[in-house]
């Protein structure tokens, strides 16, 4: 199984603290050593880094760790290959364009039979069940909404329905972003945490690193972090309920 | 105007020598300081790096220069913004998926009226004339060929026709790759060079750097490099003819 990390904020925020913890699980504190990738949104653009190597030994991971990229939405994934060989095209997050927006997707789990679902507009480049599921979801969204739906609620509803349907095929913990909202679907395991004033300190579980967010933030900052398993041991992470779609915008949970 | 660099080879090859010359033109020996980007193909996958900053000062360019990525097809672009503001989503190369293949595109020139062409399947994420032209070309290819054409020749012919049509709107020097063939369209300025045995030395024009390809290659290697202007001063670069599509596969020109 893989590990997921997502971030959604109201001001562009640096993810390096959380990323530093996650990448340890890519071969050092975890067995997810079959590649990793990250997608950072900047405005309407989306910048991705992918590496089919273990993240704990990756030069590109070193770059991401040493280079401050501030972003409103981030999706990151470290891979333990269960379906599809280890290569660049099978490395999450996957990206596609719909409605002139850049969409990114990463998945933890296995899906049985997803590859027999027919596709119309989007086709996988690699061979994972995950990319097929992403293409299928975008296909269905596009078929139902050739133009963006008028309300955010309508989009949330169709994503929830589709994620429920995919999830019935196996395990489907998912992060999906349309460059505005971070959609998190919990099938078995996904936790989240919102950091906002008054900020405090936090220490990573997977490596010795502590940050004092009082020094890194402004009072109005709201930053939500989502991960397969909590990344810090001194903050109030909440587990999402199995079978739930939890969308975040501007750092806050929406649509309840 | 921008500058383009492309590479097509029969064995995965490191582009760092040519890249080191090109990025000097991004603010040091040239005025193309409004961002840069590069797409490397690895198997069916495509890895991109984009930076809206000047390439000569870019940390990500330093990474690309210091990190050996070997690739059969590369497209690189340094930008002098003429249409569309300076931001990540306006930074070439642009990428999209068609037929389960990753396509990458970069453009030098300006196109008048391209944005009034209607689009069906692909929409720009940014605001450049270039990305609109790319979306329009893929739209037309997809409309005519919902499935990949049976012959490489048919695909070359449609790309040639579409490039001619776009070129009539202004200046259209273009690099396009479908993960197999590097299609180069010369509207005004594009040069190329094929390196093969017996290999020799070459020296960059834009920075002091010489490489002895005898030490870097095997006798069977064939590597074609394409650039807006020659990158070395001691090799036999050839100018492409205005109005020509020149496709390369496995390092060699095809379809004459």
Largest interface pair: A-B, 30 and 30 residues
Cα-atom radius of gyration of chain A:
17 Å
CATH architectural arrangement of chain A: 4-Layer Sandwich
- The total of helices of chain A stands at 5
- Low-pLDDT segments, ≥5 res of chain A: none
Average per-residue pLDDT of chain A, rounded, comes to 92
Q: Structural class of the secondary structure composition of chain A? A: alpha+beta
The top-level CATH class of chain A is: Alpha Beta
CATH topology type of chain A: Glutamine Phosphoribosylpyrophosphate, subunit 1, domain 1
Oligomer: homodimer
Helix amount of chain A, in percent?
Answer: 10-25%
Output the keywords.
256 residues; Glutamine Phosphoribosylpyrophosphate, subunit 1, domain 1; homodimer; 15 strands; 6-stranded antiparallel beta sheet; alpha+beta
């Amino acid at each position: 199984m893989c590990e997921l990390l997502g971030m959604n904020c109201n001001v562009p925020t640096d993810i390096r603290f959380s990323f530093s913890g996650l990448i340890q699980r890519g071969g050092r504190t975890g067995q997810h050593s079959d590649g990793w990738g990250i997608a950072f949104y900047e405005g309407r653009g989306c910048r991705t880094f992918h590496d089919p190597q273990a993240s704990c030994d990756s030069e590109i991971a070193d770059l991401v760790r040493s280079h401050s990229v501030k972003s409103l939405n981030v999706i990151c994934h470290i891979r333990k290959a269960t379906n599809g060989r280890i290569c660049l095209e099978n490395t999450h997050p996957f990206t596609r364009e719909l409605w002139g927006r850049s969409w990114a997707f990463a998945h933890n789990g296995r899906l049985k039979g997803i590859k027999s679902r027919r596709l119309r507009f989007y086709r996988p480049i690699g061979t994972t069940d995950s990319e097929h599921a992403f293409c299928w979801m975008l296909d269905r969204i596009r078929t139902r909404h050739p133009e963006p739906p008028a309300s955010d609620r309508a989009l949330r509803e169709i994503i929830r329905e589709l994620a429920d349907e995919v999830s019935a095929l196996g395990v489907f913990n998912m992060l999906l972003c349309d460059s505005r909202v971070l959609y998190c679907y919990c099938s078995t395991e996904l936790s989240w945490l919102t950091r906002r004033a008054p900020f405090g300190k936090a220490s990573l579980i997977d490596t010795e690193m502590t940050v004092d967010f009082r020094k890194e933030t402004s009072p109005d900052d709201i930053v939500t972090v989502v991960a397969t398993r909590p990344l810090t041991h001194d903050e109030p992470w909440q587990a999402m309920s199995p079978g739930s779609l939890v969308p975040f915008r501007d750092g806050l949970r929406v649509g309840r």
